[in-house]
Write a structure and sequence with these properties.
379 residues, FAD/NAD(P)-binding domain
Length: 379
C-alpha cells in the first residue's frame, strides 16, 4: 500500500515541502509507492512579505498572488478543503467538506496570524501592514500624512521580526523624499529593554536611529488604544498620543492546533533539530506555527522545508530520519527605500548586520520577484 503524506497549509513552508518531496520521491510516486496531498483553505498562494511594500504602493496585488495549483508539481494532489480536525491516534485529517484524509506521515505548516483583537481598541484605532487589507488601508494614510507623530508599537510574538525596523526606516526615507520629514516625528517602541529581540540587531539599530533622528522607547507593551483620544496606553503605565498608529499586532497560531488538542497556546510543540512534533513520530511541523526558539520568517520556513523533505525521504527510502535543522535564518532588512542590509544566524551563531548598501536592497527586491521559483522548490 502506498505511503500517504498529507501536508496541511499552502503557504511558503507547505508549498516548498511538497515540491521538494515530489522531486526527491519521483520514482516512488510514479511506482505508486507514495502519494503526496497538500490541503489548503485557499486556491491562492500569497507572498506575504510584499505587504510591507504594498503599504508604500511599491507592490501591487496581482504581483504577489499566484494559483497554488500552478505552483505545485503535477504529481502532487492539491485539495482546497479547510482543516477542521486532526486525529493523531487514528492518523487522519478532517476537512470542512466532511472528507477524512488518512495519512502515514503528516506535515503541519499552519502558520501564524495577527490578532489585533488582543489589544482593546486597536482594531478601530490602529493600522498594520501584516495583512493584505491592512496594508492597503495603511498605504492611503501614509500617502496623505503631512504632519504629526507616527507611533509604531510592537506586540509579541509576531512573524518577520525585522519588519518593524524596516517600516520605520522606509517611512523615514519616504517623508524625506516628499520634503516633509521635518514635520513628522517617527516614534518607535519595543516591548523589551532594547530596539530588537536580537541584541546585535538592536545595537546596530541604535546608531541608525541616532543618525536619522528617529525617537524610541523600550519596555513599551501595548495594553489598550483609545481611538477617540488617539492615545495608546501601555502595561508600564504610560499614555502616548499619536496622529497615526502603526501597530504590529501580537500573533497567534492556527485555531486547528488548539482545537486538535496539540497545544493550548496555539504553537506546535516541535523538536528543534528533527522538526518532529513532540510525542508523534510520524508528524512534522515547520514555519511560523512552531514553538521553536527562532525567528518566524519566510527563510526559516525555506530552510526547514529542506530538512522536513530530507527526513521524510530518508524515512521512506531508508527507514529512519537522518537530517537536522540548525536554526538557520537569513533575513534581508530594508534600511530605507534605496538601501538594505541582511543578517544570517542560527541556534549557535549570532547575527551580524552588514553595512547597508544599494546592492543588498536590490538583492532583496530581486528575491521578491523570483520567490515563485523558491516556492516551486527550484532554489
Amino acid at each position: 500500500m502506498a505511503k500517504r503524506i498529507i501536508i496541511v497549509g499552502g503557504g511558503t513552508g507547505g508549498t516548498m515541502t511538497a515540491n521538494i518531496l515530489a522531486s526527491k520521491l519521483d520514482s516512488e510516486i510514479r511506482n505508486g509507492q507514495v502519494t503526496i496531498t497538500l490541503l489548503s483553505d485557499s486556491p491562492v498562494h500569497v507572498y506575504q512579505p510584499a505587504f510591507l511594500y504594498l503599504a508604500f504602493d511599491r507592490f501591487y496585488e496581482d504581483e504577489f498572488t499566484r494559483s497554488e495549483r500552478d505552483l505545485l508539481r503535477p504529481e502532487i494532489d492539491f485539495v482546497v478543503d479547510k482543516t477542521t480536525g486532526i486525529d493523531f491516534k487514528s492518523c487522519f485529517v478532517q476537512g470542512a467538506s466532511g472528507k477524512k484524509y488518512q495519512y502515514d506521515y503528516l506535515v503541519l505548516s499552519t502558520g501564524s496570524y495577527p490578532d489585533p483583537s488582543a489589544i482593546p481598541g486597536l482594531e478601530k484605532g490602529g493600522d498594520w501592514f501584516y495583512t493584505q487589507e491592512g496594508a492597503k488601508k495603511l498605504a492611503k494614510k501614509i500617502a496623505s500624512f503631512e504632519k504629526g507623530r507616527i507611533l509604531l508599537s510592537v506586540g509579541v510574538p509576531h512573524k518577520c521580526p525585522v519588519a518593524p525596523l524596516e517600516v520605520i526606516f522606509m517611512l523615514n526615507d519616504y517623508f524625506k523624499a516628499k520634503g516633509i520629514r521635518k514635520n513628522i516625528e517617527l516614534y518607535y517602541t519595543y516591548p523589551i529593554a532594547r530596539l530588537h529581540a536580537l541584541e546585535p540587531v538592536a545595537n546596530w539599530a541604535v546608531g541608525m536611529f541616532e543618525k536619522e533622528g528617529i525617537k524610541s522607547e523600550t519596555f513599551f507593551n501595548m495594553e489598550s488604544v483609545d481611538p477617540e483620544k488617539k492615545t495608546l496606553s501601555t502595561l508600564e503605565g504610560s499614555e502616548v498620543p499619536y496622529d497615526l498608529l502603526i501597530a504590529i499586532p501580537p500573533h497567534k497560531g492556527a485555531d486547528i492546533i488548539v482545537d486538535s488538542g496539540l497545544s493550548k497556546s496555539g504553537w506546535i510543540p516541535t523538536d528543534k533539530q528533527t522538526l518532529k512534533v513532540t510525542g508523534y513520530d510520524n508528524v512534522y511541523a515547520l514555519g511560523d506555527g512552531t514553538d521553536l526558539p527562532i525567528s518566524k520568517a519566510g527563510s526559516t520556513a525555506h530552510f526547514e522545508a529542506d530538512v522536513v523533505a530530507e527526513n521524510l525521504t530518508s524515512e521512506i527510502k531508508s527507514g529512519y530520519p537522518a537530517h537536522f535543522y540548525d536554526g538557520r535564518v537569513l533575513c534581508f532588512i530594508e534600511t530605507g527605500l534605496h538601501e538594505g542590509t541582511y543578517v544570517w544566524f542560527s541556534y549557535t551563531t549570532p547575527p551580524n548586520p552588514a553595512p547597508p548598501s544599494k546592492l543588498i536592497h536590490w538583492m532583496k527586491l530581486s528575491f521578491n520577484r523570483i520567490y515563485w521559483m523558491a516556492a516551486r522548490g527550484l532554489m
